[in-house]
Amino acid sequence: MTADTVLLITTSYDFAAEYVIKALEERSVPYFKFDTDRFPSQIRIGFKPPVDLVFDNGTRSLYGCQVKSVWYRRNVDPELPEGLDTGVSEFCIRETKAFLSGVLSTLETTRWLSSPQAITIAESKPYQLHKAVKLGFLVPDTVITNNEILVRELANRYKLVAKAVSSGYVESDNGNKAIFTSAITDSDIGDLAGLELAPVTFQERLDKASDIRVTVVGDIVFAAKILSQARESSRIDWRATDDPNIEHLRHSLPPKIEDLCRKLVQQFSLAFGAIDLVKTKKGNTYFWN
């Protein structure tokens, strides 16, 4: 491979990556696809400090010095043999991820979409809210807490929704589940015992006109209006819709909001960012992470 290779950090089942690969092939740009679910069982990495790094996926190799840019899309847990002791399995996952993170940080390219360190910081929803408020976004009244008293104080002023503090996915023996944003009822407020197990994000429930999904790439801002209020299933969280063809429309953001989105992504040192907004029936636009 030449010294202008694009390293794709993703998974073997990432269909979106295939579109990127097709575009690279059409432009005759050399690339190396690194499937994190196949490491370390099928992909090999060798690292000799300070900078001697080689990736081997079984069919070809890539040296660290050949990497011109990195598309860091997904880093998932490795596939491990069934029947491993839980402690051993957790150790292998921890060691694998620590090693991959460490060797990627030795790559001397500055062209990342986006760097793992920046992504890790940006994924913190409390920090997202903190930055959004500082920049000047409208943000619904929010409390992230395991304190029942604070939740009830907020509930005395507004109808509420609850959100996961992080990814909102639960893996269990019965299969994986997604935790969507949910409306909080009076009955929920009466029984908040679950807060002793994990903190939850509680927010003022906005009177939505639509959801807006914003994508920022460099200095370019794209926005799509999601007609989430057309169906009951998507009114609280459009991702929970029972309509796989939920309508998306091109949307023009007010210049001030567009600039805030651009600045927020820049604050996190990201080359790419996705931001959720809500347009209320009164015409206000809120940050809605």
Task: Write up what this structure looks like.
The chain has 289 residues and is α+β, with helices and mostly antiparallel strands. The chain has three domains: 109 residues, Rossmann fold, CATH 3.40.50; 106 residues, ATP-grasp fold, B domain (D-amino Acid Aminotransferase, Chain A, domain 1), CATH 3.30.470; 65 residues, Dna Ligase, domain 1, CATH 3.30.1490. Helices cover 26% and strands 30% of the residues. The chain contains seven helices and 18 strands. The strands form five sheets. The protein has a five-stranded antiparallel β-sheet. Strand 6, helix 2 and strand 7 form a beta-alpha-beta unit. The longest helix has 19 residues. The protein starts with a strand and ends with a strand. The model has no long low-confidence stretch (mean pLDDT 93).
Largest sheet: 5 strands, antiparallel
CATH architectural group of the largest domain? 3-Layer(aba) Sandwich
The share of residues in extended strands comes to: 25-35%
Low-confidence stretches: none
What's the level 1 CATH class of the largest domain?
Answer: Alpha Beta
The quaternary state of the protein chains shown equals single chain
Number of domains: 3
Structural class by helix and strand composition: alpha+beta
The CATH topology of the largest domain is Rossmann fold
**Number of strand segments:** 18
Mean pLDDT: 93
Helix content: 25-40%
> For the terminal residues, how far apart are their CA atoms?
41 Å
**Tally of alpha and pi helices:** 7
**Which outline best applies?**
globular
Neighbour order of strands in the largest sheet? 16-15-14-17-18
Strand/helix succession? EHEEEEEHEHHEHEEEEHEEEEHEE
- CA radius of gyration is 22 Å
